Amino acid sequence: MPSLKKLLLGDQGLVVIFVVAFAIVALTVPNFMTERNMLGLLQSVVTIGIVACTMMFCLASRDFDLSVGSIVAFSGMIAVMASNATGSITLGLIAALASGAFVGLINGVVIARFHINALITTLATMQIVRGFALIVSDGRAVGINNPDFYQLALSRFLGIPTPIWVMAALFIVFGFVLNRTVFGKNTLAIGGNPEASRLAGVNVVNMRIWIFALQGLVCAIAGILLASRITSGQPNAATGLELSVISACVLGGVSLAGGRATMSGVIVGVMIMGIAENVMNLLNIQAFYQYVVRGLILLIAVLLDNLRSSAAGRHR
Fold this sequence. Notes:
Elements: H1 2-9, H2 11-28, H3 35-44, H4 46-60, H5 68-86, H6 89-112, H7 118-137, E1 142-143, H8 151-154, E2 156-157, E3 160-161, H9 162-180, H10 182-192, H11 194-199, H12 204-229, E4 232-233, H13 241-251, H14 263-282, H15 287-311
Helix pairs in contact: 1-2, 2-14, 3-14, 4-9, 4-10, 4-12, 4-13, 4-14, 5-6, 5-7, 5-12, 6-7, 6-12, 9-10, 13-14, 13-15, 14-15
């Protein structure tokens, strides 16, 4: 029994649970394994998956970011409006990436240099950035003038939509950064013990700023692809995204206490979130119930994180 518990609470156990759940769903839910549904499932998790790549670093360093949904919406708005104003999609994309990175940088500076709690800081920027998105758009969706902008989401490579390739590429890049670079090792070290990391020569303040700046940049990428997919800049887009992303990360074994994260676990967590929503849609379950399911998934994720931390002897 102890070995079974150890397996279920470990990274390998998460994969086993995912494979078993996937097999059960594939055998019991009609049309789940069709090519159309599989591509639709992957496209539905693109935004969560992309943002989770860097939320993993935030959580692993004992921080978190509640402003990601607002940054995604704001960056998408900037991409569309700048493209419309200049007639250049490239300039629109650059403006969106810069705006996302800037918001992330502000978060990082306020949190790391001024020692303001991450919850309060990102809750404030969540409201501020969403407010700016509503102000610049007058609270309405902004249409895309250049049809080529749509191709960012509609184009395909080897029959697979480009956004899925972008998500996969980011999984690979940030997985490499986490496991094979000094940046990744320092992130986990800061999450494990910030003071010991500082004494060991790690610039904890700069590291935290970089992590939040990367978070903003990646949110901008997600915002651009989302705006292209929904064919407009929507100031109310990605509402509640932060909870889905945090749920996916914690389900994937990223510790809320910091110091533990794996990209493979995050990918599994993202897919669990996507499959849950996909199955409810295939079974024609009302959208209202999806809020309940998301809340239960978040609760289960936090419970699992607590059990993992206890099993590892890391009591809060």
